[in-house]
Amino acid sequence: MHSRRIACFLLGLWLGGELLLAWIAAATLRSADGLFAEPAPAAALHIKESGPAGARLLRYHAAEQVRDFMSDWGLAEIGLTAFLLLFLLFGTHEGKITLSIALVIVAIVLAERLALSPEISALGRMLDFAAVKAYPAERIRLAVLEKSYWGVEILKWAAGALLGVRLMVRHSRSSGHPWKQVDLVDKADHGHVNG
After folding, report:
1. Which of 12, 102, 118, 178 would be 85's cystine partner, CB 3.0–4.6 Å?
2. Is residue 183 situated within a structural domain?
3. How far, in Å, CA of 11 to CA of 28, rounded?
4. Cα separation of 85 and 104, whole Å?
5. Mind giving me the DSSP string for 39-98?
6. Residue 166, phi-psi category: left (phi > 0), alpha (psi -120 to 50), beta (remainder)
């Protein structure tokens, strides 16, 4: 029973990290845009002087931070999901279906972090300072890769939710009925509780 709780904790830690990364990425990019849209009074003059080049540089800096966060989280995510799989394999009595779901999650994470994320980062860096109309094929490819990334994220979340349900639902194959698992204290061979 405790091993399932630990597995659920690890699963929650991984899914929480996923949410935290998405929130940090969105907030970082939004803050870069917000600084130019509504600057603080002390910075307004400097921002006005820097013009569009300053906005582009600030946006580039925010994008680089997000790329670094994604790279760091990718390594942590690989380790965390692999540890979860190994814990389920060696620390619990989970069946083949649960272990298969965990293996699928690890495979998705590896594919996403080793193939998809580096390609998105490389194309993003190439297009950060390019003119708006330059590299149209690369821009389309980046858009397709980003949509694929979010599709993979949804797939990971679905697999994680399915794994969570499998871990939380208790299977009692041995007795057939949950009430048969209760050990009655008032049996003849146990005597009375207060006697």
Report:
1. 102
2. no
3. 26
4. 10
5. --HHHHHHHHHHHHHHHHHHHHHHHHHHHHHHHHHHHHHHHHHHHHHHHHHHHS---HHH
6. alpha
Give the pLDDT of residue 66: 93
Helix/strand/coil (H/E/C) assignment for every residue in 124-183 = HHHHCCCCCCCCHHHHHHHHHHHHHHHHHHHHHHHHHHHHHHHHHCCCCCCCCCHHHHCC
30 domain residue, yes or no: yes
Q: Which residues contact 30 (CB under 8 A, 6 or more apart)?
A: none
The tokens for 81 are 């999901």
Number of domains in the chain: 1
Return the H-helix or E-strand segment holding 5: helix 2-37
Query: Would you call 187 exposed, middle or buried from its count of C-beta atoms within 10 A (0-12, 13-18, 19+)?
Result: exposed
110 within domain boundaries:
yes
Query: Amino acid identity, residue 123?
Result: L
Q: Is residue 187 part of a domain?
A: no
| Residue ranges making up the domain that contains 64 | 2-169
